[in-house]
Amino acid sequence: RVGFAESSCEYAEEAMTVTEDGVMSVDCRLGAPSLSVSCSESADLSRCDENQQGGAVDTTPLNGLEIWTRVVQSPGTPHGKTCEEVSQDQNVENGGGDMEVNCDGKGVCREVRQCTISCANAIAHGVDSGAKDNGLSPIGSCGVETWSACGYTCSQTKINSVLMSDGKCHEEKSTEATRPCHVQACGRSDPCRVPFVVHAIMKIHGAVASRWDQHSEEIFTEAFAGTMNERRRGMRLLFHPGDVVVLNASPWRASDDTVFGTTSLEGEDEELGMQLVVETSLFNPNAELPPVKGSGNNNNMPLATCHERDLQPLTNKASDIHKKLAQQNFIDLMMERMKKNKALGEKQNSPFYYTFEDRSLAKKSQVVTSWTIKTDIGIGSSKIDFNYLSTGDLTMDILLIISLGGFIGYLCWSLRLVAWWKGELDLGPHHTQRRGKHRKLRSSTNGNYSEGDDDTVNALADDDDTIYSVRTAASGMSEMSTISERGESQVSIGSLSAYLAKVSGK
Question: How far apart are the C-alpha atoms of 144 and 171, rounded to whole Å?
Fold first, then answer.
């Protein structure tokens, strides 16, 4: 069945280009910079004279380094600009000086710039930008802390920044966290690392799609993974929160549940809630990744190697995920877990606020469907290392081939017996086959006829040798041409007449 519906997607602008070969490329996208190491921290204060005569201020210039941290919001595509290239281009556009950039593959880029500061300012600010006595005080937030994009090392980082009185966002180093992930740049086009992904469509009553943001997605993915892994620990976990990404969050309207859209509605096209498309990556822990060559950015990551035996446990995981999604109370349990998350913040700002307040909405919500996708994208995308085959594997393969050969031989012999049983197989000139009250008659080349011979005439005779059915290939012909079968027997119309006369005379 094929259907068409009006798109309700909302698109965000990205630096996207199309190459001459028609390949779409998206550049890396970076967040706002946060100051990790200030100029006063890196400067050598031993050159300053704190005891100036007459209370003069030491204005001796000191050279130092500023280190700014930027979170990778999107890794882009392999054909787009890397995060290092984007950072350098933006620095040139802003009129910045020389700068070094290093992206660690965990969702964070560090920009190192040269700086100059006077001894007086360096002493006033202190040697620790996070100290309480450094003359700076927090005056606000630099935004809600969120996880970075998943890097090629299959890790992502969360950094919290605070707006200080100097007008700059300062990184709180004590709150930095890292977790595993297997989406985006990790295994995006490497089926050995992520052989399967599970997609699910959910319709949540009462949810407001217009409130959806990055923070809401993180709260949702943590609750989704927690509900799926309930009563599971360690190696029995199906996946981690970093393995989940929401591909689409759109309004769920009444017309979405009808065949003919808004034309079949009697009233207004009411917004019932929110529809989510969720993707879960199933990571292969046995995949072996060759050493990274070059700078190790997103464009030159080597492909992993794996074995087919690695796939069976992952298919079992996919089956367990589908079973869990099929439970009627899955969304209800997920909403209850989401409400208890301390990182939720102001509940009334959440897109799930009304679903939290009225639990009956959560109970009416449903997982519409789910399916598994094999990520194999063709030859060259990944490779199976046949050097991993052991002697035991080779023996099993040989036994399998022998077993298949024996089965095929047995099948052919069985079909031969079936053909013989149906009388369709020629087992010799003297073979007679009986079925119930009937036997076949076989002709010979000398005008005599024997039982079981029907090369030219399909005749049936009962036990009294009385013919009740005769079929010829060309009835009504005055003369019958000689018929050959397998180049052996030839019977003319004369021999047929002699046979009929013989039978009728009995």
Answer: 13
Q: Report pLDDT digits (tens) over 439-490.
A: 433 334 444 444 444 443 333 334 444 333 333 333 343 333 333 333 333 3
CA-to-CA dists, residue 267 to 7, 251, 254, 263, angstroms: 21, 18, 10, 10
C-alpha distances (whole Å) from 303 to each of 14, 192, 232, 292, 468 are 27, 8, 31, 10, 77
List pLDDT tens digits, range 382-419: 443 333 333 344 455 677 788 888 888 877 777 765 56
Given a cut of 60, is residue 100 above it in pLDDT?
Answer: yes
Helix (H, G, I), strand (E, B) or coil at 174: helix
Mean pLDDT computed over every residue of the chain: 75
pLDDT at 168: 86
Query: Which pLDDT value is given to residue 20?
Result: 64
Coil, helix or strand at residue 118: strand
What's the pLDDT at 117? 87
pTM confidence score: 0.65
Given a contact cutoff of 8 angstroms between Cβ atoms, the answer to whether 280 and 183 are in contact is: no
Q: What is the pLDDT of residue 413?
A: 73
3-state secondary structure at position 420: helix
Of 189, 173, 179, whose CA–CA distance to 153 is shortest? Answer: 179
DSSP 314-338: HHHHHHHHHHHHTSTTHHHHHHHHH
Beta pairing class for 29-30 and 61-74: antiparallel
Quote the CA–CA distance of 468 and 413 in Å, as a whole number.
35
- Rounded to 5 degrees, φ, ψ at 34 are -125, 140
Residues whose CB falls within 8 Å of the CB of residue 210, separated by 6 or more in sequence, listed in order = 251, 351
- What phi, psi does 431 have (nearest 5°)? -80, 135
Nearest to 227 by CA among 146, 341, 311: 341
Residue 172 burial (10 A CB sphere; 0-12, 13-18, 19+) = middle
With beta carbons less than 8 A apart as the criterion, state whether 228 and 333 touch.
no
Q: Which residue is it, tokens 């034309």?
A: 263
DSSP letter at 304 equals P
Q: What's the pLDDT at 471? A: 37
Show Cβ contacts of residue 76 under 8 Å, excluding neighbours closer than 6 positions: 15, 25, 26, 27, 28, 29, 82, 83, 298
Q: Supply 25's token pair.
A: 């490329």
Amino acid (1-letter code) at residue 173: K
Task: Report d(CA 42, CA 64) in Å as an integer.
Answer: 5
User: Where is average pLDDT lowest: 67-71, 339-343, 466-470?
Assistant: 466-470
**Cα torsion through 367, 371, 375, 377, rounded to 10:** -120
